[in-house]
Specification:
Helix content is about 60%, strand content about 20%. With about 475 residues, the chain is an alpha+beta fold. The strands form four sheets. It has a four-stranded antiparallel beta sheet, covered by helices on one side.
Amino acid sequence: MLFLLTVTGHTWAQGRVLNLQECIDIALQNNLTVKRGNLTLEGALIDRSQARFNQLPNLNLNANSGYNYGRSIDPTSNDFINQQISFTGFSGSSNVILFNGLRLANIVKQSQVNLESTEFDLENVKNNVTINIVTFYLNVIFNRELLQNAAFQLQSSQEQLDRTRKLVTSGALPLTNELELVSQVATNEVNLVNAQNNLNLALLSLKQAMLLPASEEIDIVVPEVEPEAEALNFTVQEVYSTAEGIMPEIKSANLGLESAQLGIKIAKANGLPSLSFGGSFSTNYSDAFQRAVIGEPIVTEQTVIFDGNPVTIGFPGVDITREDVPFVDQIEQNLSRSIGLNLSIPVFNRFSVRNNVQRSRIQLQQAEITVQEIQNTLRQQIESAYNDAQAALKTYEANEKQVDALEETFRAVENQYNLGGANFTDYQVASNNLYRSKSDFVRAKYDFIFKYKILDFYKGNSLTID
């Protein structure tokens, strides 16, 4: 009994005690596939936002500055010059699509459909993680019951050994009976150790599925759950009809089909005329640009010979000098603006539009096949789960009857063995048959519970064990 308490005590080691929902939450938080799906969803959100923003006008500003050496063109006067000059320029443009065959509108719709499809893909990933956790969780409960069964068998054999020793000591039974029971107790101890190892392995698998370190001690809440024979009171078609309308993989496939249909419209729009409205401005500055400055009036005298006599003639004029034009003045004087409509009519583009439309139609056909594949897969999964659940229920009911019968057989053989009416071989066979039958009963019990829960999940109910 000291050995029994030492081995089984590890099962109830101190640590976090988690129920099924807490295990699922931890797995969903740590699972890398779920994290990748969340990132994919964020990317789809960005794609939808960009598709909407593409309908807005664009605005681009440009600036340039530099030096010219040697012979060049003055950017302000367009004159050829042969000197070093510095220049600066500014420009900007804006454009908005007025009509392009509803291409942008359909891209917005397609991005919304793709976003919803990504959301359902992520939900499907979470469902798969949840089913995986339920499987490991039930496996822990199953192995715990097997451990309890092995502990009960050991305790029963030890009690029988204690009684036999007293009878051997009193001379009522031969020593061989005691030695045979010592062997039986040793066999039960081995079974207990194996059951404990299987439980530890089941807990390890559960922790690995939740991406928890193996060193972290956890325990689980064992709910009171018993199979119900009347649980399978529905047909396969009823389950499939419900699942077809709620399963995220079906919804995602149908949205993929809708996205492919929009893809055809987008491809066709590339062959339609497009109309856009735009405007632009530009200006520049050069340190070589100068302007004339009119000063005070002046008279220029010149002596000429008239009739053999020198005559001085005055020519009136003004004093003209040149000065650099300031930066701000040049920017204002050189400013140019333009607005206009642009109509683009595709005439011949090397059949690219036609080929893109054909590719889009192929993608539509592929999406239709994908929908059919997922529907067929879902139907086959439900049919298999239903048949498995029926078979598991029958196995469970048969094992339940077998356990009841073997318990009665073991009690009768045990009484006979204590009274000397049965040999040890009969006792050992009855004990081992009962242990094996109880193990099979536990296995059939949780096999049916799991398969029923899967069917219940396809019916739209949450995966819980209570």
